[in-house]
Automatic annotation (TrEMBL):
Keyword terms: ATP-binding, Cell membrane, Membrane, Nucleotide-binding, Repeat, Sugar transport, Translocase, Transport
Membrane topology designation: Peripheral membrane protein
Protein's name according to its UniProt entry: D-ribose transporter ATP-binding protein
UniProt domain ABC transporter: residue ranges: 8-244, 254-498
Principal cellular location given in the protein's record: membrane
Compartment annotation: Cell inner membrane; Cell membrane
GO MF term set: ATP binding; ATP hydrolysis activity
Lineage per the UniProt record: Bacteria, Bacillati, Bacillota, Clostridia, Eubacteriales
GO biological process terms on file: monosaccharide transmembrane transport
Amino acid sequence: MESNIPKLELKGIQKFFPGVTALANVSFSVKKGTVHVLCGENGAGKSTLMKIINGIYQPDGGSIHIDGKEVKIQNPIEARKHGISMIFQELNYIPEITIEESIFLGREPVNKLGKINWKKIRKDTEELLKQENLPYSPTTQFKDLTVSDIQMLEILKAMSYNSQVIIMDEPTSAITRKEVGILFDKIAELKSKGVSIIYISHKMEEIFKIADEITVIRDGVVIDTKPASELDIDKVISLMVGRKITNAYPKEDIKIGETMLEVKELTDGKHFEDINFNVKRGEIVGFAGLMGAGRSEVARTIFGLDPYLSGEIKVKGKEVKIKNVKDSINNGIVMLSEDRKRYGIVGIRSITENVSISNLEKFFYKGHLHSKKEISSVSNICERMKVKCPNLETSIDSLSGGNQQKVIFAKWMLRNPDVLILDEPTRGIDVGAKYEIYKLITELAKENRAVIIISSELPELIGMCDRIYVMASGKITGEIDREKATQEAIMKLATRGE
């Protein structure tokens, strides 16, 4: 009977915020040594549930049980004492901190004189690194590590607390395919040691590679829990969104017009060289490649964020000189960055302010801001982009990832651009919101705009693009038409010279 007791069990969890029921009678359990995947759209209640398990929020009803015994978790320190650790999607760290300092932060051992015992910290860190087969030095600073390295160290830190339950929130959102493989190997190793993993992800293909069980949550309610073997991608998506999505990629056949953007022999001397490509009106062109291939750097250069040494950029057949973002915008080129929180939105500001910030000249007359015109324009464009929000004065921080992305689309569409560069347009966005973004991209292409999609999700590129350019080591290694595009064909070109 002992083996049938879940490692972690939540019974009838409820959580209320002003005017909102975030969780309604949620019951959820994780068996020892298994990976339990939690799926749901943004706003479904996943994060709230995990914050309750981690002691960040207190439930308004229900109970938490570990190994069959009810426990109260008042804060993350108590969660760790109960063997629960959480690795957040956005890894927060101090760049100059060392590995050993990070692992023992807040629990530094002291000697008889009450001073920090650095010898013990060094020795214990070396033992932990060796135990987990991680090839790092205790004195390495975080600024010298990759995102994948930092994730591995977060797992190491969790194991140093003797964690028996580790929550991983979107752990593969910013790492390469190779690093995903390393992470999955580490998860398998943790399972073999009896550690339970709660894994949150929007990446359907990954889920089925590691999941033992899957729970789908929607609108604060558990819709279903089943062994992964009894589900497939379509079933999970249907449970998540409450409806059947028959075509995940709503690409349409659109009449292709003349060339809008042409790039010739573009070279920056650091990240890429001799880049040649073109995009036509009504066309959606993809850029594939492994992390570090130079795709985002090319996009940043065309948008005027970074300089280039040589080459030509032509818009509508005429060469243009792009020295900064203003030059790019004035020539009808706009870009949605892969890092929307850093480059796309002003977090503490309202939707109205975020949309109008790049369009203020439209609303000023003789030094005065015409608020009525601003509000009317923002309202119309947000309605067209199908932004879901309580009102336009809502802080953009409070919106889901999908709606934040739509606000960025709205900001740029007010400028009526000819060319849109979309760098990882659906990163961190749930399945239902992705579908809406895809429909929006298709509509923009139908308006005779040229669209470039840079994405690490190959099914997304194959499903949405007319043509796909593939990059490796700073060069374009090939071009694939929609009819011939397969993941295998793309990866073959993406690994040239690797």
